[in-house]
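Readers of this paper often ask what the protein records in our data store actually look like. The remainder of this section carries one protein's record, kept here as part of the documentation.

:::
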Amino acid sequence: MDLTITTLEGKDAGKVQLSEEIFGLEPRDDILQRVVLWQLARRQQGTHQTLTRGEVARTGAKMYKQKGTGRARHHSARAPQFRGGGKAHGPVTRSHAHDLPKKVRALALRHALSAKVKASDLIIIDDLAAAEAKTKLLVSQFANLGLENALLIGGSEIDANFKLAASNIPNIDVLPVQGINVYDILRRGKLVLSKAAVEALEERFK
């Protein structure tokens, strides 16, 4: 398939032929969901933890004698049913990450790219570069291109001025092509790829 290449100023810069095997698939929601959940699970810190009855700082002495009080038989005040006692079956520090085959992750990335093409939310820019780090100028250029909520993917290295200028714009993310991922693609409305990013992606999936 052919897509028009534009500049940041909104001018026509030719056409690029995209691979059907990368950008022309029929998106599958189940594959995309698996990878998004995998990414979010890896991001969880897993540092939540409560104290068990063996960890609370409280006396372990028997509360009162076993017999003769007419009350229930209790031993330690650390038991979960008492105020200040330990938590029964509470969360513990752990990793939430789980395994996902590398081929599934790669397939999901192609499906995410194809989903953007199918929704007409993919824009190809000739080069993500700025002469000076001026956010105001970049905001006006994005407004002309209709970019209010977008993920911009550059080549292996992002132009320093462009990165600085874009960092202050809300709902705009800028990543090098090595950092492209399913979650960030789907969470933003538009996907903007530079020519270098398109070439790198086609080389990666060749």
